[in-house]
Design the sequence.
């Protein structure tokens, strides 16, 4: 990733999990990263760790509630005023709420839509504005989706989560269409859809993966590697959709003789 040194990436949900692992890899590789999350102390701890290890890039922290459009707009104003143009927008933040259609809470459904659909869409819009304003030659918007954006979870309480991720998949394709129509083919839009990743998102949703084998689960660092790979592609290569599964889980999905 040497050719990306000095470029600017914005990572949402950067305080933990995939977002934190991605921020670490990018700053270590010499990029300037703006980490956005609600938990400012987590971001500051991450920044301190990077500075102590003398990473070659820079890490900036911005506290932001991604379910609040005003917060998002203020975050991007800070980026515009202090950083300038951005090259990569990595929409990583997401939540899971177990809430059935038959008897679930509307507030949980709204949280899912606000965080998993509205937030990445608003961030994509604002990132595009900064790319245009600062004449970024090769921009890239990356949505961290889910395998459930292509199928349905067997958990009855996951259907609104499924819907939010499928909506994000459609919106990413729509983003590519709009970029082409606007004559902004130099800005790419990619979707990365992992299977089960060991992050705090499942703890918050009170979901357990204790019954799963270690080989069935991806690590946050493995997903960060995939994000970095997509970012490192040349301007003429678009990875429109990447589905990332653990090899163990993939093997189990096929019948054996």
Sequence:
């Amino acid at each position: 990733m040497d050719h990306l040194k000095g470029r600017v990436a914005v990572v949402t949900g950067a305080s933990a999990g995939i977002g934190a692992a991605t921020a670490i890899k990018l700053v270590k590789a010499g990029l300037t990263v703006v980490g956005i999350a609600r938990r400012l102390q987590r971001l500051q701890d991450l920044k301190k760790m990077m500075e102590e290890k003398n990473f070659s890039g820079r890490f900036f922290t911005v506290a932001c509630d991604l379910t609040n459009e005003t917060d998002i707009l203020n975050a991007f104003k800070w980026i515009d005023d202090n950083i300038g143009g951005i090259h990569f927008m990595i929409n990583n933040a997401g939540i899971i709420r177990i809430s059935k259609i038959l008897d679930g809470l509307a507030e949980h459904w709204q949280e899912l839509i606000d965080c998993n659909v509205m937030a990445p869409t608003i961030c994509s819009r604002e990132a595009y504005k900064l790319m245009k304003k600062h004449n970024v030659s090769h921009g890239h918007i990356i949505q961290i989706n889910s395998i459930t954006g292509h199928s349905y979870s067997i958990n009855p309480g996951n259907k609104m989560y499924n819907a939010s991720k499928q909506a994000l998949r459609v919106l990413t394709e729509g983003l590519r269409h709009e970029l082409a129509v606007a004559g902004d083919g130099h800005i790419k839009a990619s979707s990365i859809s992992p299977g089960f990743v060991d992050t705090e998102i499942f703890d918050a949703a009170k979901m357990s993966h204790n019954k799963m084998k270690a080989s069935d689960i991806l690590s946050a660092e493995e997903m960060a590697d995939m994000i970095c790979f997509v970012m490192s592609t040349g301007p003429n290569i678009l990875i429109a959709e990447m589905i990332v599964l653990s090899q163990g889980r993939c093997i189990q999905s096929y019948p054996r003789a």
Observations:
- The beta strands are 8-12, 32-37, 58-63, 88-91, 139-144, 187-194, 241-244.
- The mean pLDDT is 91.
- Helices lie at 17-28, 40-52, 69-82, 106-133, 159-181, 201-204, 220-231, 247-252.
